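Q: Sequence in, structure out?
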Amino acid sequence: MLFAGCDWSDQWLDVAVIDRSGAVLGETRIVYAESPDPVARYREFLAPLGRRWRATVTGIEDVNILFARSLAASGMNVVHVDPTRAARHRMARGISKTDRADARLIASMTLAGEYRPLVANSPEAQALRVVAHAHRAAVAHRVEALHSLRAALMRIWPAAVWAWPAGVGGLRSRQARAVLTAAPSPRAAARLDRTSLAALLTAAGRKRTVQDEAERLRMIFSRPVMLLDSRVEAAEALRLGHLLATLDHAVRRADDLQRDLAQHYTAHPFHPLVTGVPGVGDILGAYLLAEIGDRPVERFGSGRSLAAYAGVAPVTWASGHTVRVTFRRASSTHLRSTVHAVAFSMVSHSPGAQAYYKMRRCAGDAHATALRKLGRKIVLCLYRCMTSGLPYEDATAFGYDPTADRAPSRPSRKPLDEEQIALARDMLAAPGTTVTATARTFGVSTQTIYRHVLGRYRAR
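A: Exactly. Output:
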């Protein structure tokens, strides 16, 4: 049986092959520019070295590069060698840092069994992971483009930033982007009349209260604002146009990837399990399964290992009489952020999660610490459900009897209590009081006043 070590770079691969005794059988360098298929070139190099060359164990420090993934897909045994451990071995043995020496070192560590087996997920799970990472990057680019546009508007036209509230999407909404594309400066917006604004809003997809929204925007754009020289304003408008085009592209890209993500998410074998978790939608569920995969037992072995990989298992440092518990930083950043978002969402949707969060807060934990401990319980419960095939049950996950008198329940939050509703009715009974003024007094929307105070939906 042969053991190989591969030291990779962006231009070539250095490979060293040893036998069970540790003797070097061969070394080579595979240059990408000279080898269109490095995997085939590597297999040709192994063939003369032994009859069982197909059973060669290949150790590499990064199993996510194309060579390692393609080699594993061809049926070869690929294992992961920890780069930090390899560096410690190099320092302990006094080996100089060269590509050839690193390949020999990785081969010797592979022979000694100092590696972690590579457990690949199914092609469906791998495809979900690729699309999920692409969607994360698209959302981050969309946020960056939105912040760039907002900063540019604050330089010349602050009124446009607050023209569209966050409740309707803010500057990211289709209506805001359509209006700003047609009028990217204060002078251009002031020349828009009600008919032009209504046409822009209709083209952007608005169907209700178009004339009212057009009048509201016309009143905002017709107010006096601080103006620059017309030539400077034209240059700033040109800049805003390019930023709007970038934001449009980022929004379309994120929306398209979200549709692709939903398709891959439904094809995952654990999709029915995750959809049963309260507070976990399609995006968070897809992010969870993209990082956990569909072979949790082979990859992690236990729920505690998965919790450590997710960054929700604490690290304890003890020396003498000093014991310190710290945050685990050596973890998957993608899974850690996803578990944090899942825990935050479940507090508002799961009775057990809400009760556990309140208990940890009453015990003195900070908000982030309580969410991290809640995330650990969620990860352990998901691992149990994935390995046993049992569906998720909130009462089982958090250990309470739903039929008991004091069982935790998620109270429905009403925007107005009974006393506020009575006070709002008295205000509306007074002559001259409008629904809009009443809504502003209580800090709610006009739709809330129509629905909860007047008992009817707002006619649109």
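The chain has a mean pLDDT of 91.
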